[in-house]
Each structure stands twice: as structure tokens, then as C-alpha cells.
Amino acid sequence: MTEPLFRDDAYRAECEARVTAITPEGGIVLDRTVFYPTGGGQPGDSGTLSWDGAECWIVTAVKGEAPGEIVHTPREGEPLPPVGATVRAALNWPRRHRHMRVHTALHLLSVIIPLPVTGGSINHEKGRLDFDMPDPLDDREGIEARLRELIGADHPVTTEWITDAELEANPGLVKTMAVKPPMGQGRVRLVRIGAGEGTIDLQPCGGTHVRSTAEVGAVSLGKIEKKGKQNRRVTVLIDA
Asked: Which of 227, 27, 238, 17 is nearest to 130 (CA)?
């Protein structure tokens, strides 16, 4: 397994790690990493691995074939560290931080539009959620204003864990229709926005988020598109 340091500290941008394997495709497996692997609509992180005066640019990270394994995908032609080497893994932090801002904004959007989510994705400029929404939105300006209000309220964003059994007993925590949170390891990670009675959102999520809603910054609504018979896609744009 690769220890996912980002899970407990999304702001950790570097770490030392040991190379445990090189995949047949040339991917690099480490014993621990700050790189988030593609999943849950969030792209894998990019950055560098450096060792003994050499450096390798990583274009993304993905989940490996073995349970809990994270594979770092190098740019074509990059040098590869030897198995057993100690490397310094460093994120492309500006890109990762934008992912964190967008991902948190989408959680807030799911609060404002309390409908089942049928899909979603983010990048460093925008994110979108697809909703089971037969009828068109009739208050675009109001939704945008409410989103900005929640961001400006500076709600704390924290994580916690519950057991698989606790999640099964509380199915209302899951907002996504097509994608279910990973279970089978005994516990599931929740992301909470707000605290105590002031909680405005609580849902399973393995992605990275900012510490408070204010850190999301300025946003605006992008396209609202009809996708299929009763799905509508709502896009959120973030400023630089």
C-alpha cells in the first residue's frame, strides 16, 4: 500500500518517500505520497520526484492494481528512480490548491441544489455537477448569490470517519446516485462543512478540500446545460 498523506493533511505539499516498485508501464510506486490519485471526479496531482541530483516530472497519479497502491505517472522520456531509492515528492501546489477550492465549491453547490447528483468533475478552473433535475433552474442569480454567501460565511471544512455499518444506517449522507463511496475497509471518510448545529453539509468524500469556505474565493456560475431526459449540468467557475 501507499500511505496517502493527503488524506489527513491536504496542505502538505512535499514529503520524502521510498520507491517500492516500477510498473511495467513505467509508473512509480512509493511507500507514501502527497499526490492525490485520479478519483471521485478529481484529477490526479502533478509535480516532481527528485533524488541524487535527478528529477522526474509527474503528469498525474492514479490508483494502482493492488489495493491502496498509488502510481505516479512520469512524463514520457523522464528518468526513473531506482527501486529502493529515497525521493522527495513535491506537488504542483498552485494546481492542487485550485482543485481543493473547486471541490469545496461543488459541495456547497450540492447544498443549494438539494437534488440527487448523477455525476461531476473538476479541473483547475471550474467544476460541474450533474443533477437529477427534470425542470430547468428558474433562479440562476439567486443560486449564484447563495453560493457566494456560503463561501463568505467562512464555514470550517473538516474531515471525520464513520464505519461502513454507520454509513449503511444513514444512506441519506450519500448524494451521488451512480458512484457510491468506497466501502469494505471498515470505515468511510466524511467531509463536514460547518460545525455542530451549524453544519450545512456532511457527505462521504475522499477528495482534497480547503480548510474554510472563505478560501474558495470568488466564484460564478457557468453554463447550465440539459443532459438527457432529466439531467442538468451546472458549472461553477473560480477566479484566479
From this structure: 227
> Torsions phi, psi of 65, nearest 5?
-75, -35
| pLDDT in single tens digits along all 240 residues of the chain | 999 999 999 999 999 999 999 999 999 999 999 999 999 899 999 999 999 999 999 999 999 999 999 999 999 999 999 999 999 999 999 999 999 999 999 999 999 999 999 999 999 999 999 999 988 888 899 999 999 999 999 999 999 999 988 988 888 888 886 666 665 578 899 999 999 999 999 999 999 999 999 999 999 999 999 988 889 999 999 997
Q: How far is CA 226 from CA 28, 134, 146, 147, in A?
A: 40, 9, 22, 21
- Name the packing angle between helices 140-152 and 93-112 (round to 10°): 120
Strand 3-4 and strand 32-33: pairing?
parallel
- pTM here is 0.94
Look up residue 169 and give its DSSP letter: H
Residue 227 contacts residue 164 (beta carbons within 8 Å) = no
Residue among 181, 203, 174 nearest 191 (CA): 203
What distance in Å separates the CA atoms of residue 208 and residue 6, rounded to the nearest whole number? 7
Residue 153 CB neighbour total at 10 angstroms: 15
Q: Which residues, 6 or more positions from 129, have their beta carbon under 8 angstroms from its beta carbon?
A: 106, 109, 110, 113, 117, 119, 120, 233, 234
Q: Length of the chain in residues, anyone?
A: 240
| Domains of the chain, each with CATH number or no CATH | 3-91 (2.40.30.130), 96-238 (3.30.980.10)
